[in-house]
Amino acid sequence: MDWKRLVQFGLLGSSDLEQYAILLVRVSIGLFFAISGAKKLFVAGGTQTMYETLVGAKVPFPHLMTYFVSGVEFVCGSLLVVGFLASLACGALLVDMLVAILTTKLSAMPKELSPLNWLDNFLYLPEVLYVLFCIWLICSGAGKFSVDYWLAGQLRT
């Protein structure tokens, strides 16, 4: 066993594995959003729940926004799965999650929390994690196993 390489891996990770991590996160978050958007678009109960959430959050034009937001999640999630226009899709999903945090999640957090407990609760929100994943994917790109990577290679030749 090469202890030096093991310690280096522990300290620095492995750039050889980075593309697999990007693939795993991109496909996972893409599937999540595609499935979530599809349930809101194509399942009556999901559409109604989304509509009621938007009405409760006092979002303007809740009927239209129900279909718009659900469509963004479905289309952008699907784009992420294959890695096509991934940065654009992540940008749209990032805005979607920021609006969700601002309109529904923050108001639902308990008011009497200490700043540290408030931050703990805030960072525990799944939407915060989705925002962080989207930022990471915008910065890293869709990775080698994506349509974007293939298209970029075609533009170089």
What does it look like?
83% of the residues lie in helices and 0% in strands. It has 157 residues and is mainly alpha-helical. The mean pLDDT is 94.
Secondary-structure element order, as H and E? Answer: HHHHHHHH
Number of helices: 8
Note the overall shape: flat
Major beta sheet summary = none
Number of strands: 0
How far apart the termini lie comes to 43 Å
Radius of gyration: 19 Å
Instruction: Kindly state the percentage of residues in helix.
Output: over 70%
Secondary-structure-derived class: mainly alpha
Low-confidence stretches: none
What percentage of the residues does DSSP assign to strands (E)?
A: under 5%
Mean pLDDT: 94
Task: Summarize this entry quickly.
The chain is mainly alpha-helical and 157 residues long. The protein contains eight helices and no strands.
Which features characterize this protein?
157 residues; 8 helices; 83% helix; 0% strand
Spell out the blueprint of helices and strands.
Blueprint lengths: L2 H10 L2 H28 L1 H13 L5 H21 L3 H23 L6 H10 L1 H15 L6 H10 L1
